Amino acid sequence: MTRRAPAPEDFPNLPRHIAIIMDGNGRWAAARGRPRTYGHRVGARSTRLITEECARLGIERLTLYAFSAENWKRPREEVDFLMSLLSRYLVRERKTLLENNIRLEAIGRLETLPAPVRRRLEDVIAASRPNDGLSLCMALNYGGRAEIIDAARRAMQAGLEGALRPEELDEARFAEFLYAGPGVPDPDLLIRTGGDFRVSNFLLWEISYAEIVVTDVPWPQFRAPELHRILREYGRRERRFGGLGPASAPTGSP
Ligand code: FPP
Q1: Ligand 1 centre and the CA of 155: distance in Å?
Q2: Is the residue at 212 inside a domain?
Q3: Does residue 167 lie in a domain region?
Q4: Is residue 163 part of a domain?
Q5: CA 53 to CA 155: how far, in whole Å?
Q6: What confidence score (pLDDT) does residue 253 get?
Q7: 22 lines ligand 1 (CB under 6 A)
Q8: pTM higher than 0.85
Q9: In the predicted model, what is the mean pLDDT of residues 114-122?
Q10: From 20, 21, 22, 80, mutation site for ligand 1 pocket: most ligand atoms within 8 A of C-beta
Q11: Residue range(s) defining the domain that contains residue 25
Q12: Phi, psi of 119, rounded to the nearest 5 degrees
């Protein structure tokens, strides 16, 4: 008997924005006697399936930690493999992303990515700009502290240009200088696969009020059923945003 795929209505309280630390590729491959790169390859398939599932469920935004600013420290061959995997992913998935009304975005210090990756990234971002379904945001050469520094620099620049007075800078205004730009909701749910309880410099500003779920399932094995389990767990959590009831959403002001 095949079970029907759950509909969005089956989840009483879906997050608008999900962020994922896709961890455990290397360990998953090593446990099978395979090279780490094999884990990344199968992980790329999880990326595709989870993106499609989020689009199908009507999630607004999915942010994936695909390459951190610290990942350059890995052996040269692994970095090269990840960059070429990303490049191939962008070519291969272009059509599917466009057909599924998905809009691709990217956050991070993108200017230091290899030129072919940057070119392909810019191509898919431009082609998918009119789409109004899921926003798929890839964090590439991304670091949370670097993002806050870059935002502070932009805010200072706006100040020097006379567009912003120090007393006008509050949380909402500062958030507009972050990589994703104005109007983007913070993640409601942060998932980390692979079992480690770490934030790893991911979206440090944006996850202030996110619900965090760590699953032991490594990323190459993370597929729709585990996502559904986590979405049900999220639905049972009561979000209080520091207040006393579920309605107390953050306002950024006292
Ligand atoms: C963490 O696993 C994963 C990464 C450093 C890269 C994430 C990349 C992918 C999921 C595949 C490619 C994605 C796209 C968008 C094409 P790890 O190597 O740190 O695993 P470990 O903790 O077991 O060593």
Answers
A1: 33
A2: yes
A3: no
A4: no
A5: 37
A6: 46
A7: yes
A8: yes
A9: 97
A10: 22
A11: 20-141+188-236
A12: -60, -50
